[in-house]
């Protein structure tokens, strides 16, 4: 497929806890986004000891952390689903144990897809006097986030 621009990356969310795998119909598009970022990192432990090869440091990974962040222009149109997600984050319902838990699905033009449960750690609204109103979100993985690659064709 080649290169693509960020606006072609689709972000969807489902208001479910980490134990409830959403169906396709549960996902809603998070619309009017500008920036979308997903980062995967691993915690490591030092396994270096007196017999490590050639005095070289060795390590093992322990836990994976996937972080999502994004922002967009504020719209109150229901079709963009911004206010639905904001309400869930600011006042989480009993369905998710009063926790701001969501499933995110980030799909790239090639078909590459990140899917998994997240806990939203921050929601922000910015309303400058003489500029567009914007919002931003930050979330961390809250279970297994899976990267699915599109099938490779002949």
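-> sequence recovered:
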């Amino acid at each position: 497929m080649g290169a693509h621009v960020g606006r072609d990356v689709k972000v969807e969310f489902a208001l479910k806890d980490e134990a409830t795998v959403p169906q396709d119909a549960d996902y809603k598009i998070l619309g009017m986004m500008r920036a979308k970022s997903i980062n995967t990192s691993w915690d490591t432990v030092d396994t270096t000891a007196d017999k490590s090869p050639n005095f070289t440091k060795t390590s093992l990974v322990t836990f994976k952390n996937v972080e999502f962040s994004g922002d967009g222009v504020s719209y109150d149109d229901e079709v963009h689903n911004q206010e639905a997600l904001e309400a869930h984050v600011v006042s989480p319902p009993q369905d998710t144990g009063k926790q701001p838990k969501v499933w995110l699905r980030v799909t790239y033009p090639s078909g590459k897809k990140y899917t998994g449960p997240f806990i939203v750690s921050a929601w922000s609204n910015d309303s400058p006097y003489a500029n567009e109103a914007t919002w931003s979100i930050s979330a961390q993985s809250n279970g297994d986030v899976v990267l699915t690659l599109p099938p490779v064709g002949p």
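The two ends are 14 Å apart (CA to CA).
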